[in-house]
Amino acid sequence: MSVIWGLPYLLISVAVESIAPEAVVAGRTGIAALLLFPIALRQGALGPALRHWKPILAFALIEMAGPFLLLGHAEQTLPSGLTGLLVATVPLFGAITSFLLGDRTALSRRRLLGLALGMVGVALVVGAGTADGTVRLINVAQVLLVAVCYSIAPFIADRRLQAVPGIGIATLALGMVALGYLPIALVVQDGTPTARSASALLALAVICTAIAFVTFFALIREVGPSRATVITFVNPVVALGLGLVVLGETLSPAQLVGLPVVLAGCWLAAARSESGPVLVAEP
């Protein structure tokens, strides 16, 4: 899972080279939904999902529709490795979200220390990029908004969708997003995508969306929700490594220092009770 969900940042960066971000979202979710549909149908998961379509729609909007589009627009200029690192701040925003939703123990001393460390780390990696002109603050804001969305969506699943099979949630949510973006994609897409971008989109849909959801639900069943969150701290390392090796992106000394600071802050902020939702970012 750490590899699978560390890979999308590279693939999104390649896909948006010749495919509009809206078309990337439509293609990614549409292909994934078609692949998952027969599995969900065979497991009888679609009926319970359809009976809970309203919270699933809310989940789809916050977990997929908004974040997938924001990531596509941000990665038209933002390095993929830096994008992955910024999305890793989900546990930081998750602690704040939990507190705002009524958990008064969410902002313990440990978590407050994690929030402080995480923000310092983000300042280091973003400041290094903006100083040399390689990073635009608007793109950073888009990615951090993605992290906020990823911190909210698990609470919907945890509080409203516990009785619904995960494969049913994923299939219906992906299908909703695909249907919503398809007409937009047909209008905004200009020209024929390159083979490179089309291949990246296909890999994004099959590996990082369809297979990812099936694997993630299996991981939760195997090790439990708490241990499953470990992948959150490995994703950005994978994303940074792929950006450096495959795309030739660079990493400044300040970003090298900021990376462990962000991850340390997220680790502290991710401390939670067993009853809390799983705060894992699906890019």
What descriptive keywords fit this protein?
globular, 283 residues, mainly alpha, single chain, 13 helices
Tell me what the structure shows:
It contains 13 helices and no strands. With 283 residues, the protein is mostly helical. The protein has one domain (8-269). Helix 1 (8-15) packs across helix 5 and helix 5 runs antiparallel to helix 12. The protein starts with 7 loop residues before the first helix and ends in a 14-residue tail after the last helix. The mean pLDDT is 87.
Question: Per the principal axes of the C-alpha atoms, what is the gross shape?
Answer: globular
- Give the structural class: mainly alpha
**Helix and strand string, N-terminal first?**
HHHHHHHHHHHHH
Strand content: under 5%
Radius of gyration: 18 Å
Distance between the termini: 12 Å
Brief overview, please?
With 283 residues, this protein is mainly alpha-helical. The chain has one domain (8-269). It is built from 13 helices and no strands.
Task: Summarize the helices and strands and which ones pair or pack.
Blueprint: H1 8-15, H2 21-42, H3 46-51, H4 53-74, H5 80-87, H6 90-100, H7 109-131, H8 137-160, H9 166-188, H10 195-223, H11 225-228, H12 235-246, H13 253-269
